[in-house]
User: Which sequence fits this backbone?
């Protein structure tokens, strides 16, 4: 009897030791994997900073045109990147909002809806070079917009819509059931509920999503090469002729974003262009990090305003 | 047995007019019959409590009064529910919901300021001037016993209040459209004891000039606030009557068993 009890406790001890060591091994392996990922990110950022920070911080690099003889800068590319991003958001945010609201609040649960959802998901996995080719055939040639900011923004919109629709959908779905109940019990129509209750409640998450997507769009190159062009534009910031190819606000002129500029200088190097490439890469990286930071900050700020103010 | 009558605030329901009349009412969710041949009269300007174990149909019936059940797919009803002699299923649902306010288990102020929460309902019906808006805010918040706590913060978000305050804000919001009927679906089950007693006090006061119907899991709450109580079990109305009688001298075996805690 006693030996039987003893055998059981020995077996139990062995079992505990076994699962204990399994747990330790698993924790160790997972920690190493996470460590490697972090190391990779840190290494890439550090490498780019080491190569490019000097140039990026050189006075004039951010404020000179690319053809400045002393310090060739990236002013035009910086402007074009932000301007194209703005145009992209102006097009894609309303469309995505509408699509997400429809899918969450209105769409009946049938095959058309599920086909639409699949289509949106597929759009997000299209290779960017393919979207660029489509953009160049459709927006540039068929619609006759030429190589232009508008064509580039439309190509970027095609990337942006699936991300935005997904985030906005999620944000709307996360609004608590009780809030909908309140609206329904007061006899609000679906539209009133959406505009006055759901959107305000979801706003922090929506804004965060928009800014994060902006960070992604900001660094896109392949889709822009055939649609917005890769030749650095010559801009005249004093121009008031909005149809002039040198007017910075003209959406029908070609433009070259930071990412495309990096691609161009790398594929057609000139004297001293390596330096500029690393400088530009540093600025691009800083911008994207800034977008991420801004997204968190805005989200926190908005949700605090929602609950306190 | 802990569900004894404590106070003596109960008012007679004998002399009260009938606000809601339910006749031979059945309700199905798909194939499941959630309410079976309900016949019940809800007295005007009194508090009526629906009690019974989970899944007995008490919340379903409450949500039928403002046709919240319309939003559930596969719902089918038979029989009639009349509100002032009018069949609610013939009325415009949104118009009905103006006369029937509702307060939920979880406080759910809109994501806007306290003032906007109160004025949202009235503003949907007509233009509200600044001074009229101030008047409505003060009246409804006072009635909901919240005015003193928030009068200096009317432009702050309603979501920044504590749970108990939020629930009183929701009551004030419901009052702002001047409803004749107030439905309360377990309004205190997410609140702390102090907030609970404030909301119970409010229910008693509001029942002086509103028809209040409250669903509760808490039998003591029914004895404290309700003039009339109806006991539901498995979709059937087992027993109904003045709260004092139902708790003091239940006629049905199952009512006795439920009240004495033999099942819940």
Assistant:
């Amino acid at each position: 009897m006693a030996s039987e009890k003893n055998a059981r406790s020995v077996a139990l001890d062995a079992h505990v030791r076994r699962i204990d060591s399994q747990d330790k091994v698993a924790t160790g392996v997972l920690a190493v994997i996470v460590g490697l990922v972090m190391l990779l990110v840190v290494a890439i950022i550090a490498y780019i900073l080491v190569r490019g920070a000097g140039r990026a911080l050189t006075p004039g690099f951010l404020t000179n045109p690319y053809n400045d003889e002393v310090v060739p800068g990236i002013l035009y590319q910086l402007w074009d990147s932000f301007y194209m991003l703005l145009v992209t958001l102006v097009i894609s945010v309303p469309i995505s909002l509408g699509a997400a609201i429809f899918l969450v609040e209105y769409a009946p649960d049938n095959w058309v809806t599920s086909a639409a959802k699949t289509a949106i998901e597929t759009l997000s996995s299209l290779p960017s070079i393919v979207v660029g080719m489509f953009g160049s055939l459709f927006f540039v040639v068929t619609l006759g917009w030429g190589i232009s900011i508008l064509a580039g923004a439309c190509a970027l919109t095609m990337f942006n819509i699936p991300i935005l629709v997904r985030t906005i959908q999620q944000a709307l779905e996360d609004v608590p059931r009780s809030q909908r109940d309140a609206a329904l019990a007061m006899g609000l129509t679906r539209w009133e509920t959406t505009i006055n209750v759901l959107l305000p409640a979801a706003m922090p998450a929506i804004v965060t999503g928009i800014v994060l997507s902006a960070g992604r769009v900001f660094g896109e190159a392949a889709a822009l090469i055939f649609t917005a062009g890769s030749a650095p534009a010559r801009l005249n910031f004093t121009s008031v002729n909005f149809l002039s190819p040198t007017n910075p606000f003209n959406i029908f002129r070609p433009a070259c974003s930071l990412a495309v500029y990096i691609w161009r200088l790398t594929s057609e190097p000139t004297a001293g262009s390596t330096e500029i490439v690393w400088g530009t890469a540093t600025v691009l990286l800083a911008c994207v990090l800034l977008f991420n930071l801004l997204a968190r900050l805005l989200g926190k700020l908005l949700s605090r305003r929602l609950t306190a103010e | 047995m802990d569900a004894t009558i404590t106070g003596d605030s109960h008012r007679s329901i004998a002399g009260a007019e009938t606000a809601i009349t339910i006749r031979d009412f059945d309700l199905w969710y798909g194939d499941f019959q959630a309410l079976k041949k309900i016949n019940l009269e809800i007295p005007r300007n009194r508090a009526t409590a629906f009690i019974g174990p989970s899944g007995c149909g008490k919340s379903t019936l409450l949500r039928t009064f403002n046709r919240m059940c319309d939003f559930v797919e596969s719902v089918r009803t038979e029989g009639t529910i009349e509100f002032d002699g009018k069949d609610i299923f013939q009325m415009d649902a949104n118009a009905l919901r103006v006369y029937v306010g509702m307060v939920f288990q979880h406080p759910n102020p809109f994501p806007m300021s306290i003032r906007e929460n109160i004025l949202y309902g009235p503003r949907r019906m007509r233009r509200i001037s600044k001074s009229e808006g101030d008047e409505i805010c003060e009246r409804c918040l006072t009635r909901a016993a919240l005015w003193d706590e928030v009068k200096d913060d009317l432009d702050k978000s309603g979501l920044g209040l504590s749970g108990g305050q939020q629930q009183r804000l929701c009551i004030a919001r419901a009052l702002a459209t001047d409803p004749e009927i107030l439905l309360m679906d377990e309004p205190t089950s997410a609140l702390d004891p102090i907030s609970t007693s404030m909301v119970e006090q409010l229910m008693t006061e509001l029942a002086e000039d509103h028809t209040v119907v409250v669903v509760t899991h808490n039998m003591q709450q029914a004895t404290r606030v309700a003039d009339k109580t109806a006991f539901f079990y498995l979709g059937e109305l087992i027993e109904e009557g003045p709260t004092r009688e139902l708790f003091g001298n239940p006629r049905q075996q199952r009512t006795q068993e439920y009240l004495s805690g033999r099942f819940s």
